Amino acid sequence: MTRNVYQKSLEELHNHIIKMGTMVEEAITDSIKALINKDIALALKTKDSDDIIDDQEQLIERMCLNLIARQQPIARDLRNITAALKLITDLERIGDHASDISELTISMIDSTYIKPLIDIPKMAKIAIKMVDMAITSYIEMNEDLALKTCASDDYVDELFDNIKFELIAIAKDNPASINQVVNFLLIAKYLERMADHATNVAEWVSYVITGSHEHLAGTHHKDTLKENPFKEIL
What does the pLDDT look like over 154-177, one tens digit per residue? Predict the structure, then answer.
């Protein structure tokens, strides 16, 4: 395989990762839209889309293994492909969580919600933006954007804490609401995990660039950001 063919193969790989990222972003969007509007058709569509995301993961995995077998890459090229193998696992898990949210939506479709949905849609919007930032940082090999993605996780964690404390208060005042309290707490946790997976993707980007894989979420807090990237959401 010549270097030019190899570069074209890498570009094709990146395009498929972008496609998978777009699928995942759409899955998050649809799962929350279905939750807000109690749209059972959209919830079922989101559940079904999880299989398509899984297929895309398997396709990218085959491409990565083929590149390693045929090109025998070293140094940064090998790290690039290794990171791709790792980050698609995180993207697949985000798709799983979107499907999980849709399952909970279906279970509550005939119920009146115990609270207005305010922070949950905010969490979803931030998670979507974090996925987009993480994928872009990989395609552009942009370490600053990767670090910004990691720092953004704090915003999601704060919203999760707000939701958790609010739901605990509701459960204390109205024990009969416990089923929905648990469901909404699970939904918030799934969104919090989505942000964690986006952070993982960004950490793999940093690995490609620096050669060192570190857990950055606990060391780069939102206070390090020059400005709030989610001010239009929050």
Answer: 999 999 999 999 999 999 999 999
Backbone angles phi, psi at 189, to 5 degrees: -65, -40
Q: With CA atoms as reference, report the closest residue to 27 among 219, 191, 176, 214.
A: 191
Q: Report which of 88, 160, 101, 156 is spatially closest to residue 125, judged by C-alpha positions.
A: 156
**What one-character-per-residue DSSP string does 38-54 give?**
T-HHHHHHHHHHHHHHH
Q: Which amino acid is at 58?
A: Q
Are 230 and 159 contacting, i.e. CB atoms less than 8 angstroms apart?
Answer: no
Domains of the chain: 3-224 (1.20.58.220)
CB 184 within 8 A of CB 160: no
Task: Let me know how long the chain is.
Answer: 234
Name the pTM for this structure.
0.92
Contact 80, 104 (CB under 8 A): no
Instruction: Give 25-70 pLDDT, tens digit per residue.
Output: 999 999 999 999 999 999 999 999 999 999 999 999 999 999 999 8
